[in-house]
Amino acid sequence: MRIAVVTAELHRTGGTERGTAEVVERLSREHQVCLFAHRWDADGNANICFHAVPVLPWPGLARFLSFYWMASRAVDAAAKRHGGFDAVYSPGPNCRQVEVCTAWFCQARQDELLRSGKLRPGPATMSDWLRLAHRKLYAATVTRLERRFYASPRLRAVVSPAQVLKDDLVACYGIEPERIVVAHAGVDAKTFDAAQRAALRAQARAELGLGEGEFWFLFAGTDWVRKGMLTVHAAMREVTDARLLAVGPDGSASWKRHAEQAGIAGRIRYLPPRRDILFYFAAADALVAPSVFEPFGLIPLEAMACGLPVIITTAMGVAEIATPEDAVILQCADDAAELAAAMRRVMEDSALRATLARNGPQRARMHPWDAIYKATEAEIKAVAKTSPASTGNSGQR
User: Fold this and answer.
1) How many whole angstroms separate alpha carbon 16 and alpha carbon 35?
2) Does domain 194-365 have CATH number 3.40.50.2000?
3) Model confidence pLDDT, tens digit, residues 132-191
4) What is the CATH number of domain 2-185+369-391?
């Protein structure tokens, strides 16, 4: 098949980004992929034809809307030049022609959380005020676009990486449940491996300057509000010997001021995202991920694959495939006392850490990327059977 894949960025820095890259890479092994993107970190696959899509670089909302408009035009132009596509696929609402979508997020839940004012510190600077205002405008605008996107008759099928996300999409957007296929996201066991983590550990801790005998939790993600950083701050006030590696772009003045006010700033290291998150897995002693909602949670599953003990919540899709033998699972995501107790358990109970380190990789290996890829490919094939392009317009691009 010749498949148009539309996504603003295709790379492996970030959980959702790695998920998209895994699906697209597998599609390109079996099919011709025309990639419409603004950024592509090529992995050397010759079966991907790249169509660069220009965008307005800033702010984020302008970037999103400009990509949607320009990508829609680019797909139309390419279809006219090359006789159409067997299917148009996208990981989200990235153009108007999408027929099969992998949903990695529900913006309506984000909009609800931001409007509630919960789980975030007050802005500390004018920059923080502007950033918060933009985030609210972004969530509200994209929520409206997603509502129209999922109601479009063009969209034939949606693949969700977890039941919890399917439930959100049905509740927030009124999508018919039968249009959504659940296929859990996976992990690359060759990249995320306990032996590789162990081999890298001494180097990673030395480079980060982590002291001998210090216990460091890892918190990683692009959205510190829904991922529960405020709850982590509260728990750290109770667990006075816990230290935190905070990875992500959200280390704004408001979060740093809140940490100072809580008396925990000296125990937090703010670090930038990096492609090889295995480096941070190697340096850390456990992962803490108390998300209030999480469509899946690739980072916890990847951490489990590396033998890193993880603390997650029932609000996360990854909890659908984990058990208490593989991970510490919190019942209430924003309960600081429950999180503090879990952090103490992990820090003090070496037998528990050994059990999680042993069982985590076994559980993760049970969930490769095959499931969500095969589900996505099946929906694309179903669309291709009824697409005019599948009847003879599959020549050279």
Assistant:
1) 17
2) yes
3) 999 999 999 999 999 999 999 999 999 999 999 999 999 999 999 999 999 999 999 999
4) 3.40.50.2000
pTM of the model: 0.94
Nearest to 381 by CA among 97, 3, 26: 3
Q: DSSP secondary structure string, 161-220?
A: SSHHHHHHHHHHH---GGGEEE------TTTS-HHHHHHHHHHHHHHHTPPTT--EEEEE
Asked if 249 and 223 count as a contact pair (C-beta separation under 8 A), the reply is no
Domain residue ranges in the chain = 2-185+369-391, 194-365
Q: Give the model confidence (pLDDT) of 305-351 as tens digits.
A: 999 999 999 999 999 999 999 999 999 999 999 999 999 999 999 99
262, 147 Cβ separation under 8 angstroms = no
Residues paired with residue 396 on neighbouring β-strands, in sequence order: none
In sequence order, what are the residues at sequence separation of 6 or more whose Cβ sits closer than 8 angstroms to the Cβ of residue 324?
none
Residue 10 has pLDDT above 90, yes or no: yes
Residues in the chain: 397
For residue 3, what are the β-bridge partners? 33, 87
By the 8 A CB rule, do 290 and 311 touch?
Answer: yes
The answer to whether 25 and 45 are in contact (CB under 8 A) is yes
From 211, 272, 229, select the one nearest 247 (Cα to Cα): 272
Q: Which residues contact 340 (CB under 8 A, 6 or more apart)?
A: 234, 235, 236, 238, 239
| Domain 2-185+369-391 and domain 194-365 have a common topology | yes
Name the DSSP letter for residue 117: T
Q: How far apart (Å, rounded) are the C-alpha atoms in residues 295 and 282?
A: 25
